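Listing S7. Sequence submitted for prediction.
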Amino acid sequence: GSEGVRGEGVCAARRPEPPKGWGANHIFTHDDDVGTVALAAASAAGLRAGNRVTLGEPRDWEYFKFVFRSSLFGIVTLVDHLYGVHLQVSNIFTMAMREQLSKDTPLRRFLVPFTYGTIAINDAARVTLVTPDSWVPRAYPFDEEGLQLAWANAYRHLPGGVELKVELTERAFLQTIFDRKAYIDIRIESGVDTQYYKQALEYWVMLRAFVKGTFDVYYPTAADQQRFVEDAETEHFLLQAMGGIQATSDVLVIGDESLPHAWESFARAEKYTMVIDAITRFIDVVTTGHEQVGKVQAYAQDASFASFSWAASLRPRWAGGTGEGVLAAPKEVATGQALIMALTSTPMPDLVAAAGGEQDWSKIFWAADGEQRAQLDEVYVQFQDRLRAFSAKCQEVNEDALAAFESGQQNVAGKPLVNFGLWSHDPQYLETSVSI
């Protein structure tokens, strides 16, 4: 078997000399007890593309593990977390909400809990993590031009549907990019049937049922739904969001009904589905998506576990280094990581919040009268019940994984079965909006 991490597009960005690190493609295979590492592109190890190395010295293996952890840590932080969650999805949807929706429309009131604090959080991220000479640029192994190239290539490396852009027609892509279930089905059919995707799918189904259930209360008939999707504010909100997301900005066409991917060419039911999917996907990203890629405090606190960059001298001798030195970040980088982590843990409202309690964030939802309020409360209570049941299921999965390891179970290769817990979808840990 093998595991891999792609990073050649980001890692090919220009770096100052001497280079301070980052590997590119890492493919780990299990051919022997020591382990074999194949680097499919030029890496921080100083190897040429396609080089294959069997590690014999214990320090070599420790070095490659450090490179793998650190490269993955750096790529996910830059691409998935800062760019994907903060600068793209949460930022674009919040701007569209604030600029296009009246303050008392059902859609805007519904989005408030999921955009809570987002403007302040993203502004802090911009000032401290994104602008030139801020903490991330100082800690990462890129010069100013290289960092700009990394930002420019970031969206091509986002998972979750962007990669389907080259495989689907424009119309199919617009209908799929926000449909998490459609994407997960594609991944599972391709053989990537992991516990992560199982939980992601289950979370998506209950989240979408909550979103659709809420808007079905507001717009119960086909005629109501048509008025909703054809309302100028709804259209402007969705079109601004889709036009701002880099992956869809050059696909969406407005005003030319002759083109199959023009907004006007979609039927009423298709538009309603796209609006529901877009809202659900936004909430999915700022809740479990941010939990998956953004909660990295524990990793960054130990500069010997993962570092944004490191000295080239740490490489093995056969790769041009000294083969000596502590496998850890330099003092400047370690200090920078500590400062970045000092910004984290800004608490946001909990996603799991009992109906009628102090933390009940559904109280802000707009309601025309008491009857409609009762219907909205029923949808919210069902959602909270499902979240709690799903949380118990996630905890059971983690307990089983730990029990399998402690009992000494073996995998198909006869090696000790090492399973790890998965907390990114457990609702008890999720918040309604992004933090740092």
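Caption to Listing S7: primary sequence and predicted structure tokens for the chain studied. The chain has 16 helices and four strands. The longest helix spans residues 58-100.
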